[in-house]
Amino acid sequence: MKIFIDTAEIEEIRQAASWGIIDGVTTNPSLIKAAVDRRRGEISMEDYVREIVKASPGPVSLEVIGRTAEEMTVQGRLLHEKFSPSGEVAVKIPINPSMNGEEEIEFEGLKAIRQLSGEGIRVNATLIMTPEQALLAAKAGAAYASPFAGRIDDYIRSGLGMRRGADFQKGDYFDHDLLGRARDSKIKEAMKDLSSIREIYQSETVNMLMAQGQDNGIRSGVDLIARILRIYRAYGFRTEVIAASIRNPRQVREVAELGVHIATLPFEVIRGMIRHYKTAEGMRRFMEDIVPQYQALFKER
Ligand code: G3P
Q: What is the distance between the terminal CA atoms of the chain, rounded to a whole angstrom?
């Protein structure tokens, strides 16, 4: 599995690169805004992005801001021309740029993906929330597809009336297994009073419970990624899946177990991956047990 770092902070990119564990970088306008704001005008946006591209050991995803295929294609070419001399650039195109259901632009992302990919520019199809969207991105020729795992977990929890910041925190692990068991037991209870399969099939309560704790059959962000990988493998698509919107180390483990091509991780998630209580305890014990004779082994002659 390749690891990208999901940040626009150059220091974070440099540090993670010095640990030898990152293969690329993903950014978005929000991450770049936060990083540039912190520098309060000390550096131009263009120079800053060039620095990011130079610091990265692999492709850097940069997002367009247009919403029509033409705008996105022109911007994608510009990003490529401006920054690929300093490194490798992938152009991030939203799978569907419509914000309020404007039907006329819903397929503009796909058109831009097709055009830029045809010109040999690597495209990262972003904001993917369904396997169906991922299938379309691959058909249009995207080099990468980025499903947003954490946001799907948020969405499922919000469907259950849970609020981020109040009922759960952004980095909390989403236990879809527990949720599934809770739902199954409720469904079993609701079925008790129903005698025929037809009654069960038609029961409003059963249908309501079935729909809870999932998004149109997707049980979690990790489940979304599993299904996309299954589809890509079934047809031999060469599009690589970037597990995005990853919020905690356990999610990283789960997507790694799926054999996802790439996971893009915030710096703090990477930091969390190195820690374990027993590792620190083990270190303390080893350090306590160092006898002078052993210490002498490390004296330079
Ligand atoms: O990789 C996409 C990422 O930047 C969004 O993450 O945690 O804001 O959903 P998040």
A: 43
How many CA atoms lie less than 13 Å away from 51 in the CB half-sphere? 17
Residue 161 tokens, joined: 């009336």
Per-residue pLDDT, 291: 96
Say whether 92 is catalytic: yes
The pTM of the whole model exceeds 0.85: yes
Q: Which of the residues 54, 92, 192, 299 is marked catalytic?
A: 92
Encoded amino acid at 187, one letter: I
Distances in Å between the alpha carbon of 181 and those of 148, 194, 257?
Answer: 24, 20, 22
Question: Which residue's CA is minimally distant from atom 6 of ligand 1?
Answer: 245
> For residue 137, which of 27, 154, 148, 22 has the smallest C-alpha distance?
148
What pLDDT, in 10s, does the model give residues 232-287? 999 999 999 999 999 999 999 999 999 999 999 999 999 999 999 999 999 999 99
pLDDT digits 0-9 by tens, 63-113? 999 999 999 999 999 999 999 999 999 999 999 999 999 999 999 999 999
Q: Say yes or no: domain 2-163+220-286 is CATH 3.90.1150.10.
A: no
| Domain ranges (residues) in the chain | 2-163+220-286, 175-217
CA 50, CA 124: separation in Å to the nearest integer? 19
Output the ligand 1 site: residues, CB below 6 A: 6, 26, 28, 148, 150-151, 244-245, 247, 264
Residue 41: the pLDDT is 74
pLDDT at 248: 98
Mutation test residue for ligand 1: of 32, 144, 151, the one with most atoms within 8 Å of CB:
151
User: How far is the CA of 160 from the CAs of 153, 169, 179, in angstroms?
Assistant: 11, 15, 10
Average pLDDT, the chain: 96
Contact predicate 252/269, CB 8 Å: yes
